[in-house]
Design goal:
There is one protein chain. This protein is mainly alpha-helical. The chain contains eight helices and no strands. It has one domain.
C-alpha cells in the first residue's frame, strides 16, 4: 500500500498543535461541562477512536480527513488516560510521566527490532502502521503527563508553559536544520507539541482566576476545530501529501 502518513510540512505541524489543543479543551468540556466525568468520557472517546482507527487501517493510502480525525481522537483519549491515572487512581505525575516514557521507548525498541526502521516516510505495511499509532498514543499520553507535571506540579503555569515548550520545539527544529537525526528530531518535536498544545488550550480556555484568558472550552474547541477542518480541506484539494517510501531513515 502507499504511505499512510502525511508529508511533514508547516501545515502538518499547525494541525498537530491545533489537534492537541482540541484534545485538551474537548476532554475538559465533555468531562466537566457536559458532566460525563473522566471515566465515561474515556469510554466514549475510546470507542470512537477504535472506529476511526478501523477506517484508517482499512485504507490503502493516506486519506486526510480520516487520518486527522484519528489524531484528534487519539489526543482526547491520551488526555483522558493521563487524567484517569492522576485523578482517579491518584498516581503521581512523576510516576505517570516516567511510565509513559518507558512505554514509548519500549514501542520504539520493538518497532525497530521488527522493522529495522522508525521512519515515518515508509508506513507502507499494516504492521508498521500499528506500531506508528501505538507510538502516537503514547506520545500524547506522555506529552499530557509531562505538560501537567511542568505547568501544575512544578508551577510553570500556562503562559510560561507555552513559552518553555515553544522554545524547546524551536531548539529541536534548529537541531534538525543542522543535520540532526531526522527520525529522532521528528519524534521529539511530536512529543513536545502535545504539552505546547495543552498549555495553549488551558491558557485560552481557563478562567482568569486560574491564569487563563477565560475564553471557555466551547469557544476554544469550536475555533480550533474550524481551523483544523479548513487546513485538512486545503491539504485534500492541494494533493494527497504523502511521502514516498524511504526505508533508509
Amino acid at each position: 500500500m502507499l504511505n499512510k502518513v502525511p508529508e511533514i510540512t508547516a501545515i502538518f505541524w499547525a494541525i498537530k498543535i491545533l489537534s492537541t489543543t482540541v484534545g485538551e479543551t474537548g476532554a475538559d468540556y465533555l468531562a466537566v461541562h457536559v458532566g460525563l466525568g473522566a471515566s465515561l468520557t474515556a469510554i466514549c472517546m475510546s470507542s470512537l477512536l477504535v472506529a476511526a482507527l478501523l477506517m484508517q487501517l482499512s485504507r490503502r493510502a493516506y486519506v486526510p480527513w480520516i487520518y486527522w480525525l484519528t489524531v484528534v481522537l487519539v489526543s482526547i483519549v491520551g488526555t483522558q488516560l493521563t487524567d484517569l491515572l492522576t485523578d482517579k487512581l491518584e498516581i503521581s505525575l512523576y510516576v505517570s510521566t516516567a511510565a509513559f516514557a518507558c512505554a514509548l521507548t519500549a514501542t520504539f525498541v520493538i518497532w525497530y527490532g521488527a522493522e529495522r526502521t522508525l521512519s515515518i516516510h515508509s508506513i507502507v505495511t499494516a504492521r508498521r502502521e500499528l506500531f506508528y499509532w501505538t507510538a502516537i498514543l503514547f506520545t500524547f499520553a506522555l506529552g499530557t503527563a509531562a505538560g501537567d507535571l511542568a505547568t501544575e506540579a512544578l508551577g510553570l503555569g500556562f503562559q510560561l508553559g507555552v513559552v518553555v515548550f515553544g522554545m524547546l520545539i524551536v531548539a529541536v527544529a534548529f537541531a534538525f536544520s543542522i543535520d540532526g537525526h531526522p527520525v529522532l528530531t521528528f519524534w521529539l518535536a511530536y512529543i513536545l507539541t502535545r504539552p505546547l498544545g495543552a498549555s495553549l488550550g488551558d491558557l485560552l480556555s481557563q478562567s482568569r482566576d486560574y491564569g487563563g484568558l477565560g475564553l471557555g472550552t466551547i469557544q476554544t474547541s469550536i475555533v480550533f476545530l474550524t481551523v483544523i477542518v479548513g487546513l485538512v480541506a486545503w491539504t485534500t484539494f492541494e494533493g494527497d501529501g504523502t511521502h514516498g517510501a524511504d526505508p533508509a531513515q
